[in-house]
Amino acid sequence: MKALVTGISGQDGYFLTQLLKSRKYEIHGIIRRNSSMGTGTMALLPDEVRDEVEIHYGDINDAHFVTSIIAREKPDELYHLAAQSFVGYSFQNPFSTYDSNIGGTLNICNAVKDVSSDTRFYFAATSELFGHPAQTPQNENTPFLPRNPYAISKLAGIWTTRTYRDAYKLFISNGILFNHESEVRGPEFVSRKISIGVAKIYRGSNNPILLGNLNAVKDWGYSKDYVYGMWQMLQQDTPDDFVLGTGESHTVRDFVEAAFKEIDIGLEWKGSGLNEVGICNGRTLVKVSKEFLRPLESENYRADYSKAKKKLKWEPKTNFQQLVKIMVRNDIARLGKAGLE
Ligand code: NAP
Hints:
Elements (H helix, E strand, L loop, with lengths): L1 E5 L4 H12 L3 E6 L15 H4 L2 E5 L5 H11 L3 E4 L6 H6 L1 H22 L4 E7 L22 H20 L2 E7 L2 E2 L8 H13 L6 E3 L5 E2 L2 E2 H11 L7 E4 L5 E2 H10 L6 E3 L6 E4 L2 E6 L17 H6 L8 H19 L3
Parallel strand pairs: 1-2, 1-4, 2-3, 4-5, 5-6, 6-11, 7-10, 8-15
Antiparallel strand pairs: 9-12, 13-14, 14-15
The protein binds NADP nicotinamide-adenine-dinucleotide phosphate.
The site of NADP nicotinamide-adenine-dinucleotide phosphate has 25 residues, from helix 1, helix 5 and strand 5.
């Protein structure tokens, strides 16, 4: 079996590549060239996995490039993970977010339709589509009410893939995935910002962690569990859409407390709004910063993943506390090797 992965240099690409390698796939990945020729999370893969991946350098916004790779490789499975995936950045740069997430997705849909219509295709949709959700928990039938440019771009993406699936009888499955994190999550995402900040404090830093909305409610799982669900979606007899999540929600505040607990620090909260701080023994370890507040928050996320549980037999294996532990322990170990920045 041959798989093509866009966004292979991101978080999910890291875990999906290892899963595909364990299942003996021929793996092709698309990476955007940059001046340092950095390969993102691929650089962290074990040599024996990385060496097996054939990298194609290019941008998914380039329709000619996308079509020529898909025409040449005709993959059995295509995992379309590439996206500008950071909500905060999407408010600052909505156009480039639309470019990659809508234009790039359209290029892939067109290429599959035109040159490789037997390819099974996974599209990475998101719980951000629910925005300010009409119901809790959210499932495949919950209305989409996006509240940020990232979510709007994914709304266009999922409607494009659904339309192509119906119009051209393509095998396209959409994963509506709730937040999933890991030790290779981008450092700008709140979960990783917390785990890195806590690890630095453990290693002796005096800098408090600066965060935005401490009361944002998320459903957080572990990326490794979720890429297995993506793969399962493409092993079904028919294409479909599935919600993957944990069914548990936690606030950013819960994440912070759990992360500090890993280094035996019990936090106390004082003040409110922009003046709220997390302290321990008189020392300020967490501060709220206006810089990280969003113009509009998406809220109250909790997944109802009963369809995936029933049809895919998928369930998350890693709970919230285990996830936090993995992330904090990894950052402490990494800083131990690298020293404090
Ligand atoms: P990620 O770490 O941000 O990875 C995204 C990847 O896409 C990066 O390798 C990035 O490459 C690449 N990319 C972006 N624009 C591109 C372009 N124009 N051409 C080629 N490559 C491009 O994201 P992730 O956490 O692995 O998530 C994977 C997918 O799932 C994304 O589509 C995301 O929106 C979606 N999703 C994620 C979550 C989550 O909680 N992680 C939840 C729901 C949905 P560069 O390094 O060059 O930028």
